[in-house]
Amino acid sequence: MVGVDFGTLSGRAVVVRVSDGAELGSAVHEYAHGVIERELPGSGVRLGPDWALQSPQDWIDVLRVAVPAALAAAGVPAGEVIGIGTDFTACTVLPATADGTPLCLRTPERPHAWPKLWKHHAAQPHADRINGLAARRGESWLPRYGGKISSEWEFAKALQVLEEDPETYAAAERWIEAADWIIWQLTGVESRNICTAGYKGILQDDGYPSEEFLAELNPGFAGFTAKLATGQVGEKIAGVTLAALGGLAGTLTAEAAAWTGLPEGIAVAVGNVDAHVTAAAADAVRPGQMVAIMGTSTCHIMPSDQLAEVPGMCGVVRDGIVPGLWGYEAGQSAVGDIFAWFADAHVPAGYAEAAAAQGMNAHEYLTSLAEKQAVGQHGLVALDWFGGNRSVLVDHNLSGVIVGQTLATRPEDVYRALIESTAFGARMIVETFERAGVPVEEFVVAGGLLKNRFLIQVYADVLRRPLSVIGSDQGPALGSAIHAAVAAGAYGDIEKAAAAMGKRTEAAYLPDPARADAYDRLYAEYRTLHDHFGDGRMLHTLRAIRNEATA
Q1: How many alpha carbons fall within 13 Å on the CB side of residue 372?
Q2: What is the rounded CA–CA span in Å between residue 247 and residue 237?
Q3: What's the predicted TM-score (pTM) here?
Q4: Which member of 247, 307, 435, 540 has the greatest number of CB atoms within 10 A?
Q5: Strands 240-243 and 191-193
Q6: C-alpha–C-alpha distance, residues 302 and 279, integer Å
Q7: 25 phi and psi angles, rounded to 5 deg
């Protein structure tokens, strides 16, 4: 099997053995355009604050470059591959024509014609209006999303397009997740997956939000769901099927076979989200197994046999992770991004020189200094809202806060406090789930931040529980390959495939009781800050002042 993971800055492909999930070869392709945040490629059109776009050409290039390279690294004849699966960051969504052509290829000078990356947060005012109206009307779907939908999601981003560029909105015959768009390119058949439709597209038992609700937001928004072209699972609308996870989306076209070097006609699995497929890669598809995929951001995914309303969660969707169970999602909008921001922008030259002299990068050097400290020695506590707050406040106009700095504060002090802040944010999420009656039986860590053993130990101490770890460096790509194995008929369902091909080490990190006690005191201060700044009065005002000055 081949699994392809389309991330924030790059795409990676892995070749996986069907019988046991062994990863035989992999390759990474860095996006040429990266994250488009300041100006559009070619035209130089400037973007506003909190914009984040991507180029669909980068995604096609991953298929052209990474997949053949992974096959070459594996030494596996292409003819032995029986299926391919993919996953994407979400909500990464784009406007397209009815034949799937991205609008940015037709009007590249218009910012709203480009795909909006998951961390495009400029639609926060539109999300606020959606949430306010839904609360006033008592919309039945709102509690399924913890009481608020995010500015990262399909409806808020689409409303922004309508109100800021109505011509592009009108030209968009499709408003489609990149997770589904890439499957369209591979198979020639348009489909929509239940995962993104449920979590990012507000599709619940009774369908989408009503036309009446949408018209009250803006009369021109009333027909928006026609651009989504989906109904319930298995139902066709405008020839488009909403498909279950692990299902067969179609077969590889001749054109896509030429891109990838794979055989024409092999199975292509239904599209999925990077975090959600990782549950299968960690063989964590049973009730109560929370998987935290920790990278630039963190997504918390957990199957459950219980339906509850968890304040501030990203959503609960029937069959959203594995068929037959409720799937819960929560998250933190910035984690690795916080550490990268600090290391890139706030580390003195002397630290960089010292790191280089010891053969370390900035993160390794700061970690080596920070881990020597006792808990609380730096005298700091921080809020992990540098990319806004996804859970449990669902407010991307919040911003980071660091309290306790003095003239004696060193870079390693701040770095450690930032690591701890993200662990405190994760504890807030876990406690919120458990207070709502959804127990977290096992906490499983996946993602690139597993490389920092000190960071993961901090999480174990802060959470006061053992942490299991995934047995793969390529969790999403492996998870996509597992879904492809189901789509190709090698396994009867995701649970069987995950048991055979997934891997994790249980209780790999154990909490230290003394450190855990010390962290309880710091966490209490974090909660105080969280409640004080969470109303947004000060942080929203500061952001508004910044935006006015920038404009």
Answers
A1: 6
A2: 18
A3: 0.94
A4: 247
A5: parallel
A6: 8
A7: -175, 150
